[in-house]
Amino acid sequence: MAQAGGGQNQTSGGVQVTVDLLKSAGRLSLAMGMFTARQVANVLSESGKRAAASIDEVTNVAISRLKGLGDVAHAVGTNLQSGIAEAASDLAGIGPRGQAADGAARPLSMSITQSATRRLAGVRHVVAGTLDCSVRQDELVKRISRYQAEATTGRVERTQAVSRLWNAEGLATTIAWHKLPENAFGDPLLPANVLPIAHVGFGSGSARFLTFDAAKLEDAFTGVCAANYREFCYEGVGAILRVYERGFFKLSCEALGFLPFDTPDGPEPEGFFADYLTQFPPHIRRLIAHGYGRLLAFSTSDIYDAITHATSLPQERIEPVVHGAAFAFALINMTDLPHMLRHSAVPFDPSVRAAFQNGLVYALVFLDWFAPGVVANWRSEDALEAELIDLARRELEEARQQGFPLAAKLAHPRH
Description:
It contains 19 helices and no strands. By secondary structure, the chain is mainly alpha-helical.
């Protein structure tokens, strides 16, 4: 607590206490939005009792604004655990001003504010695609086809394509929660372009709705999914595994209304969910780990932190988790993907570096499948970028020849 003393000391002490409380309470989700961050910045300029009251006001307003949206946001694996305290400090001019790149060694770092804004945009686009009701099959076909068409209208623009991709994912979670007997992703009227992301979203929604029950998930996927895309659902399961994992991230989701306060923990996390994963064959375990990595990128404020966390996991989980984190990082920051490709030789072991680069390439393959044309006219600026783009083009060509892309992996990954 602030020490008694002069007014100035008490005020500055109150500011520091507020910052410390925010940090110790955790890195609350920036799904609150930058509006809330600005409100917290105002709180930081107040003192003692008034600051505490304002924190309560901000929290209540934020939660009330998110009710009804949080369930959907977390269900598709886009919940955020980012530095709202640091962002507020940044906006208020107090303390560190975010995570700037640290010379040549950390060229993929970015400010807290920029990172938070982009991740928040992902949540908003997912929420925009969801419905709190059942969807007739003809309406499902119409809506998800429209999202795909809007991603390819005229000249394909990467960030527009990503936003429509997330809209489609949100709609697919609706099917998991409000499924009608007629709903099926094997419907021949659904364009093949939408099937990978539709199955990811359906898997995310199903994981929560069925509380990770392996047998029930198998039945749900068998009854609804297109045969060549069914494995994409397990990527979604892995994303929700991260959301339900015991720890501060789950508590943050509960505090902000993403999850009810009485939500049970997910599967036992010991040994990276070792007991739970034994119910699945090895290739499905990899897909689940990949989905977990996707949420790891959303729930850490720096990609280097996400990769470092991944390297602490059991050896067989490192590659898919890093691959998944890179995949999400690329989609979140699609505007900067050329820069990311050129600086993708991250300072980790060669196998980890290759997994990261493969994940970036896979993000391009995945997005181009949804919105053809993303890669076609790419103009590379250096040898590494050109090498990775060429790999993406080869992977896309092979996927088109076989009629579908691989789930969360490349046919010919870098090593």
